[in-house]
Structures are given as C-alpha cells and as structure tokens.
Specification:
2 strands; mainly alpha
C-alpha cells in the first residue's frame, strides 16, 4: 500500500497510531514529509451532530464520553447500553459486556473467568513480548473463536489482536486496578 501511494502523486496514505508510535512510522516509511494530525476532543457542534443522528445519546450524561472520538465511536456502536453516567461507568460496561462478553457467555459452553483470563493473557503477551499480534495456538481455541465471533479480536497477518486499541487500554486499566486493588 505504501509503495502504491508513493507511485501516485495525488494519493495520500492515512495511518492511525498513538503519538509515541509516530516516529517509528516515519522511520519505517522513511518519509520526511510525514505529518502528524492529533485527534482532539470533539467540540459542541460535532457532539450535537452525533446526538442529532442518535437521539438516544442526547443526554448531558453522555457529553464527556462523546467528546472523545474513540469513545463516541464505541458509544454509537453500543447505543443500547444501560444508563451510564460517566466515562468510568462506560469503560466498565465495555469491559464487562463487550470485551469479557459477560452478557453473551451463557450462550456458550465457556466460563466467564476463563474468558476473562484469556483476555488478560492476550493483552499481557502482546505487551510483554512487544508483539503486533499474538498466535491463536497460545490460547484456548474455543475462547479465541468466541472472542472473534463477538468482534473482540480480529485476525491480521498470521495472528490476532484486539479489534480496537481502546479495548486493550480498558483491559490494562482493569489489570492495574486489580493489581493495586483499586476496583
């Protein structure tokens, strides 16, 4: 893709990454004209556009969540969440029911604690080994398939990773909370 874009004068390649990864991308692609564009919080007008299209979110309790582009994307996808009043409750709801899949576990033969442990193990293995993705063979295949079917993980190249970076962030927050008993 990168080489294709370089061969065309009017094509630009857009890559999303975290700020600390930007210099790595510049180095990999050897491009001095690479430009960093930071995603800022959404302004009131942008939040209003979202709430116009999704009236169920037109409540002041969602304002802080909707200001973050990543959270806004998730909130729109999971619009049928129960009443959530702040970012912390939102992140916990996503963790419990959209990452650990507590609300879907009864439709499988899996145990909640096994799924939760596998999710933790995926995040920790990627972090400890500095991997862009992990191998399915390192985990229970039935749990991996369950996570994939429910859009928690996605396959890339010859492994998989969390579907959204924010999922991994929320998982690590829980790991730290549990470790320091902050839950």
């Amino acid at each position: 893709m990168h080489n294709f874009c370089l061969s065309k004068n009017n094509v630009k390649l857009l890559i999303t990454c975290r700020n600390f990864e930007f210099d790595v991308f510049k180095y990999i692609f050897n491009q001095s004209n690479t430009k960093l564009i930071c995603l800022e919080k959404l302004n009131n007008e942008q939040v209003n556009q979202i709430t116009t299209n999704f009236p169920a979110l037109n409540d002041s309790k969602y304002k802080e969540i909707l200001e973050n582009p990543f959270y806004a994307n998730l909130l729109v996808q999971y619009i049928n969440l129960p009443s959530i009043y702040n970012v912390s409750e939102f992140r916990n709801e996503i963790l419990e029911n959209n990452i650990f899949l507590k609300n879907k576990i009864q439709t499988s033969n899996l145990k909640f604690n096994d799924v939760k442990k596998t999710v933790f193990d995926i995040a920790l293995k990627r972090a400890k080994d500095l991997l862009p993705y992990v191998q399915e063979s390192d985990f229970d295949s039935e749990i991996v398939e369950f996570l994939k079917k429910n859009n928690v993980i996605k396959y890339i190249e010859s492994g998989f990773r969390f579907t959204y970076d924010i999922f991994e962030d929320i998982v690590f927050e829980k790991i730290f909370d549990d470790y320091y008993d902050l839950s």
